[in-house]
Amino acid sequence: MKLKKLLVAGLAGVMMLATMTGCGGNSSDEIHVVSREDGSGTRGAFTELLGIAVDDVDNTVSTAEITQSTSVMMTTIAGNESAIGYVSLGSLNDEVKAVQVDGVAPSVDTVKDGSYKVSRPFIIAHKDGLSDVAQDYINYILSAEGQAIIGEEGYITIDDAAPSYTASGMSGRVTLAGSTSVAPVMEKLADAYMALNPDVTVEIQQSGSSAGIESAIQGACDIAMSSRELKEEETAEGLDPIVMAMDGIAVIVNKNNDVENLTSEQIMKIYTGEITSWSEVE
Amino acid sequence: MKRQKENIMKYVFLICACMSILFVALICIFLFANGLPAMAEIGFADFLLGKNWKPLQNQFGIFPMIIGSIYVTAGAIIVGVPIGILTAIFMSRFCPKKLYKIIKPAVGLLAGIPSIVYGFFALVVMVPIAQDLFGGSGKGILTASVLLGLMILPTIIEVSESALNAVPESYYEGSLALGATHERSVFKAMLPAAKSGMLAGIILGIGRAIGETMAVVMIAGNSAIMPESITSGVRTLTSNIVLEMAYASGLHEEALIATACVLFVFILLINLCFSMLKKKEA
After folding, report:
1. Total of domains in chain B
2. Which chain B residues are closer than 8 Å to A208 by Cβ?
3. What's the domain range around B52?
4. Quick one: three-class SS letters along chain B?
5. Residue B243 in domain
6. Does B139 touch chain A (CB under 8 A)?
7. Do A66 and B221 touch (CB under 8 A)?
8. Which residue in B has a C-alpha nearest to residue A16's C-alpha?
9. The whole model's pTM is what?
10. What is the pLDDT of residues A213-248, one digit of tens each?
């Protein structure tokens, strides 16, 4: 007897759940906003450049989906026709479609000549009293050879007339820590540098911009990698920032999305929740 | 000589036993020493009951996350407990020997799959299905609940099955002798006798669900909002920490540790329930 009652109650529960989810469904015209987590260098640059953040107040719509990884961002956009998101230009591949911003497609050239607006610096920072070998590694990054590698990886070089680098023959160890966005290109640079200077070990820890800056301040690593500008409280600790490259941020949508071009104002309105359907931007 | 050896070994074992206690104590001290001052700085009520999580604007309200954790865990119970308990009953009393040889290791394997693999599976398989069925992004309470329900199955099944197997055979035989059918004997005589053991299994499952991180962060949407419907995005306490830890600094970082404190209290309560049940059983 009791068992039957239990079964009926269970069934009722399932049916209630089903009706509730039925109401939750929405049309695919609705824009599904995907963003990065608070504090991420990519999000900081994106929101600031497009006017989503005004006076340090980030107005990203609170219903936006949040992810902390580039690969989840790509998979989400690739699998959802109504989604919009953003990734670093270097991580862009053909699983998704990058839209033009104000009529300019994101590419190395458009970021370099300044016509594509959504870009940010990659920064390496260190304290005074850097070891000779670490200084030599920085020289390599900023040399013609180092900048060539940065260009090959899809990032934007800062100096086309950089002096060429000659191997120093030094030995020792250089440790870098910080941004997960900078780390992939840094690993390529480290491999090439170690091939030239076999006695040097370059160690790269991916811990996020803030954590990397923190460990450079504390002396736990030689050089910090950051995908955002340093804060005042960080430069006050004696960190010296150097721009090593520029990175574009591509605004991405699903491949089946017809939208080719968005103005920066439209993107701002989408991310602040003023525009909620794709038909409004076509 | 022999005596001495015996004594030495005794202390070796004692030290090993103390290690685990030491680590628990150290974690406790670390969490509360770092978390409580942050909570005090933010204000206990603002922190625990605040509905806005905007760390860059110094708004640290984790109420949406607390609710999110509870919703997702409750969903996992709704999905996982009936399936788990019925599976345990089947395995213990109805299963043919040949089938048992397949099911038992399969359940064990389910427990051994790393959570990141569950998360990835859900991201590429379950999320598109949910998108088709309910519209929207496919990420949210529902998907996370179903996945967590799957993940807690092995815990519930294993504990419940051993609880059922521990019921004296005479209960079953007595019930049969009174004229009850096999089904009736299992559900009316065996099940009530194994109740507290099964409850213990469910509580262990709840502990796993509330603490799960990597899988949930990939499919929950992670919007720090009060969920409006069962398909809306949700952020749990665990995903809040893992999302923002890499880039957090200053009070933001301390607020995340304070979030961990709250989670820790939840787990403590769950464990307390578990040990109280165990005591009752003994």
Report:
1. 1
2. 245-247
3. 47-281
4. CHHHHHHHHHHHHHHHHHHHHHHHHHHHHHHHHHHHHHHHHHCHHHHHHCCCEEHHHCEECCHHHHHHHHHHHHHHHHHHHHHHHHHHHHHHHHCCHHHHHHHHHHHHHHHHCCHHHHHHHHHHHHHHHHHHHHCCCCCCHHHHHHHHHHHHHHHHHHHHHHHHHCCCHHHHHHHHHCCCCHHHHHHHHHHHHCHHHHHHHHHHHHHHHHHCCHHHHHHCECCCCCCCCCCCCECCHHHHHHHHCCCCCCHHHHHHHHHHHHHHHHHHHHHHHHHHHHHHHC
5. yes
6. yes
7. yes
8. B230
9. 0.80
10. 888 998 889 999 988 888 888 888 888 899 999 888
Structure ipTM: 0.77
Domain with residue B63: its CATH number is 1.10.3720.10
Q: CA A126, CA A235: separation in Å to the nearest integer?
A: 10
Alpha-carbon distance of B101 to B245, in angstroms, equals 44
Q: What pairing do the DSSP bridges indicate for beta strands A223-226 and A172-178? A: parallel
Q: List Cα–Cα distances, A275 to A168, A256, A265, A269, B217, in angstroms.
A: 56, 20, 10, 5, 27
Both tokens of residue A181? 């966005």
Q: What is the pLDDT of residues B71-96, one digit of tens each?
A: 999 999 999 999 999 999 999 999 99
C-alpha to C-alpha distance for A252 and A49, rounded to whole angstroms: 16
Residue type, B268: L
